[in-house]
TrEMBL record:
It comes from the Bacteria. InterPro entries: SecD/SecF_arch_bac, SecD/SecF_CS, SecD_1st, SecDF_P1_head. This is Preprotein translocase subunit SecD. Residues 144-157, 172-196 have a biased composition (Low complexity). The chain crosses the membrane at residues 12-30. The keyword Cell membrane applies. Residues 259-359 form the SecDF P1 head subdomain domain. The keyword Calcium does not apply. It comes from Rhodococcus erythropolis (Arthrobacter picolinophilus). The lineage of its organism: Bacteria, Bacillati, Actinomycetota, Actinomycetes, Mycobacteriales.
């Protein structure tokens, strides 16, 4: 007698399949970002791409070693921030940074040059006051006043001696009217370079040289001119290319203030470590810095000799913070950079400073 044929139960298999599907979705939903939609890689989900064109101060082509070093520093910054799925690629003279999603600010922060200097503050003014003085300037001119106006330009030199004294900047509206033509001729080199058919590198080098001539002069009259004409709302041609051995007229990072600074006393190469911290007493985010031996000794001497004065922390030619020195900082002690930082921006800046500036 032939054996009976077994009965197939498709319902059992369908039920088992359903259990497996539910289990898989449960694993997806209850782990990771709690989303039931699988997270795509950067090759599928797309991302934000920022292309940085390497530029050297003298306009020459960057070396492959410099580009490779810059790529490694940016990759280290990526790891420090915990940004997963990012890519840093060298493409000719460009560095291409790609990050998941649409956060272009994050990609740009990774490519920040990050040249840090600490400079003494010799004068400052807020942009609103400068502009208000400029618009009010036409009222004083009168036939009887030329003789009294003549000595006014001499006051600025005295005003620069104290951080909080600002009369030298208040005189700006008068000096530009008297000497605009000679001073504004300094930016001429970029125009000549482009008209001669030179390449972009030469034009950029000429633009940097012109900005240095105006904003890094030791002449008080030229410094006044720089303060009066500096536009903090546009891209800075001097970004990261200021000469640390010369004075500097610089904008604050938020564009609301202009500072006259002395030569650098410490540069970013002296940073041993940097971390973002939350100051619970002041309810603000700060960056804690510790210096190497030479930088630590220099900072201790400077703070001891300049209590009550300001020191500016400049990053890529902009003033990030300009605190007043409250007391001497002993050698070996950490110091803090304060500013309008969020938790994220403080972490990004600390990460950038910790892993070094780009060699471009």
């Amino acid at each position: 007698m032939a054996p009976s044929t077994g009965t197939v139960h498709p319902v059992r298999y369908l039920a088992l399949f359903g259990v497996l599907v539910v289990a898989l979705y449960a694993l997806v939903f209850f782990t990771g970002d709690k989303s039931a939609t699988p997270k795509l890689g950067i090759d599928l989900q797309g991302g934000t791409r920022v292309t940085l064109t390497a530029r050297t101060p003298d306009g020459s082509a960057p070396s492959q070693d410099s580009l490779k070093q810059a790529q490694e520093i940016i990759e280290t910054r990526v790891n420090g921030l915990g940004v997963s799925g990012s890519e840093v690629v060298v493409d000719g003279d460009n560095l291409v940074i790609t990050v998941p999603g649409d956060d272009s600010a994050q990609a740009r922060s990774l490519g920040q040059t990050a040249r840090l200097y600490i400079r003494p503050v010799t004068g400052s003014i807020d942009v609103a006051t400068r502009d208000a003085n400029r618009t009010a300037a036409p009222e004083p001119p009168a036939a009887e006043t030329p003789a009294t106006d003549a000595p006014a330009p001499e006051v600025p030199a005295d005003g620069t001696q104290t951080p909080q004294n600002r009369p030298f900047l208040a005189q700006d509206p008068t000096t530009p009217e008297a000497t605009p033509a000679p001073e504004t001729t300094t930016p001429a080199p970029p125009a000549d370079a482009s008209s001669d058919g030179t390449d972009e590198g030469d034009a950029a080098a000429a633009e940097i040289a012109a900005a240095r001539a105006l904003r890094q002069s030791s002449d008080p009259t030229v410094q006044q001119q720089a303060v009066a004409n500096l536009d903090c709302s546009v891209a800075d041609p001097l970004r990261g290319n200021d000469d640390p051995t010369l004075p500097l007229v610089a904008c604050s990072q938020d564009g609301l203030n202009i500072y006259l600074l002395g030569p650098s006393i410490i540069d970013g190469q002296e940073i041993a470590d940097a971390s973002s911290v939350f100051n619970s007493q002041q309810s603000r985010h700060e960056i804690s810095l510790s210096f190497k031996t030479t930088g630590s000794n220099t900072w201790a001497e400077f703070t001891s000799a300049n209590i009550g004065k300001q020191a500016a922390f400049t990053l890529d030619s902009k003033v990030v913070s300009a605190p007043t020195i409250q007391g001497a900082t002993p050698a070996g002690s950490a110091t803090s950079i304060t500013g309008s930082f969020t938790a994220e921006s403080a972490k990004e800046l600390a990460n950038t400073l910790k892993y070094g500036s780009l060699p471009l």
